[in-house]
Amino acid sequence: MPKIIIDPVTRIEGHLKVECNVEGGKVREAKSSGTLFRGIEIILSGRDPRDATQITQRICGVCPVIHAYTSSLCLDNAFGVDDKITDNGRIIRNLILTSNYLQSHILHFYHLTALDYVDVTNTGKIDDVQMSSVREFLERGELSPFVPRYEGDYRLSAEENKILLSHYIQAFEIRRKCHEMLTIFGGKMPHQVSIVAGGVTCSVTSDKIARFLAYLNEISEFINNIYIQDVLTVAKKYSDYWEIGKGCKNLLSFGVLELDGKEKDLFKRNRFFKSGRISSDLKLDPVDAEKIQEWVKYSWYKDNSAGKHPLQGETVPEPNKKDAYSFLKAPRYDKKVYEVGPVARILINYLQGHTEIKEEADKVLKEAKIKPDALFSVLGRHACRAIEAKVISRAMQNWLLELKPGEPVYTDSPVPEESQGIGFAEGPRGAIIHAVRIKNKKIENYQVITPTSWNGSPKDDSGQPGPIEQAIVDTKIKNTESPIEIVRIIRSFDPCLACAVHLIKPSGRKINLNV
Ligand code: NI
Question: What distance in angstroms lies between residue 78's CA and the mean position of ligand 1's atoms?
Fold first, then answer.
């Protein structure tokens, strides 16, 4: 049976290895393996709980803000101020997080994924002045980072390739502007310094609001006029990818972006994206956080974390464990496999009748001539990210105008002697949990379950493969030497292994696991 090993999968964040067994031109079995160990939970043990909003951001340089955001929800809960966050504090947290969402989605489509569909070696003559530096670059034969690549069925016309390439270049500038917009309230990027337990640390002034709005207008224009159209251009030529990479067809979202700060229960709180679960029948179900467990039979961790809720979870590595193949654990809901991410948020909120999402999603569904259940697919994941960017950027404009210059942004929240807290939210890549136990005013235990832990997870204790593994199985492979179909599926999930695992293990050297 031919075996395909992709190690590492490039153009994602972090280090992922995927192994597939192919039989009769189809993938029979797939193993997704996170090959680095993340020790952030261990680093946090014994520290002042307030450090968590800063330290957990170091899990990732691409999507750090969601760690600060979820950590602050978790600490608000532990400190007993989760219903006392001021409106300014709540809105600024939303604006900092969504600035990072926009950057992350644009990064994903243009700089991580587009080259799976756009053939930069076939653009025809480039005569646009703004692209002269790219033309010179290509004419010198310096094709990296565009090649080497998996060769395959690149289907766009030379003209479409040229337009997409110009947007690829423009997207760098727009991403820089997303970062600059974020720093108006966040101070710096990556690893903003404003979000803390109890609120934020920056003041609100009318000058900051005006500057933020100027950035947002320019970024929104790119999203509305270019990003969505580019996704549809790709979708037209690769329409079979509405059927490819369907995966487990169970979707989970915790909800995110607080619209009021008075309700303690995060699953009852009024949030811009509501929580929920759906499966292939598109029936909507609520989320019961008690049904979340982590499994580790195929993960390089001691079995004592098997079947535990995140509040009781432990991270004790066991790198030589028999049958294990990943540093990711296998989070499951009610012992079932769930995919998380933009397609979960969009579809769950679409079915709940979210006005803006319904309006934007219907436009895309109509233009692509598909039904909502086609969103369980490679193209569905890309389309939902673009729809989400549009809907979020419009909401940000409204939130910005709700800010009140000079009014408080922070609620004092002393560290309790003993407590525990949990935060449920959604990062650009999906559902996330931070959980803390505090004893003697110090962190006794801290656990993080990231979106990629869900999507990139290995098999669980009952042998059910993770969402990426399931999405790859049954895929037809034209050429096992150049498995472009597989990387198109993997990248549609936008995996962030940096978030799911951490700490480098240089070849031949052992990590000191006793830290
Ligand atoms: Ni990340």
Answer: 24
Which pair of structure tokens corresponds to residue 31? Answer: 């193993």
- Ligand 1 centroid distance, CA of 405 (Å): 32
**What distances in angstroms separate CA 407 from CA 88, 202, 206, 249, 433, one per listed residue?**
7, 11, 12, 45, 30
Distance 122 CA to ligand 1 centre (A): 33
- For residue range 452-469, what is the model confidence (pLDDT) as tens digits? 999 999 999 999 999 999
214/476 Cα distance (integer angstroms): 47
Ligand 1 geometric centre to CA of 13 (Å): 7
- 11 CA to centre of ligand 1 in angstroms: 13
Say if residues 40 and 25 touch (Cβ distance below 8 Å): no
Q: pLDDT tens digits for 411-442?
A: 998 999 999 999 999 999 999 999 999 999 99
DSSP per residue, 396-461: HHHHHHH--TTS--B---PPPSEEEEEEEEEETTEEEEEEEEEETTEEEEEEEE-HHHHHT----T
Measured between its terminal Cα atoms, the distance across the chain in Å is 42
How far, in Å, from the CA of 341 to the mean position of ligand 1? 13
Residue 370 to residue 343: CA distance in whole angstroms: 15
pLDDT for 103: 98
CA distances from 229 to 222, 278, 368 (A): 10, 28, 11
pTM score of the predicted model: 0.94
Q: How far is the CA of 38 from the centre of ligand 1 (A)?
A: 12
Between the CA of 429 and the centroid of ligand 1 the distance, in Å, is 8
Question: CA-CA distance, 4 to 90, in Å (whole number)?
Answer: 47
